[in-house]
Amino acid sequence: ENGAAKLFRMILESTNINIYTGNLENNCYGEGDSPFKKDEKQRTVNELISYLKKLGKIVTIIK
């Protein structure tokens, strides 16, 4: 089982999922990213959160 599969399994098995936006800011966004690219990445994160909620997960955003 590779890292991505392990992470996906952990998400599926979890009820509560914490998302640390500080980590997203530091890790997701490269220093040279344009505002458009930042918006695109934020939209991806929002879609992920929406999908997790549809699966019945309790998603907590921690800033």
| Total DSSP E strands | 2
Helix and strand element order: HEHHE
Residue runs with pLDDT of under 50 for 5 or more positions: none
> How large, in whole angstroms, is the Cα Rg?
13 Å
Shape: globular
By DSSP (H or I, 4+ residues per run), the number of helices equals 3
Q: Helical content, roughly?
A: 55-70%
DSSP strand content: 15-25%
Question: What is the average of the pLDDT values?
Answer: 78
Distance between the termini: 31 Å
How many separate domains? Answer: 1
Structural class: alpha+beta
Spatial order of the strands in the main sheet?
A: 1-2
Main β-sheet description: 2 strands, parallel
Characterise the protein shown here.
By secondary structure, the protein is α+β, with helices and mostly antiparallel strands. It has one domain. The chain has a two-stranded parallel sheet. The longest helix has 20 residues.
In short:
The protein contains three helices and two strands; from the N terminus they run H-E-H-H-E.
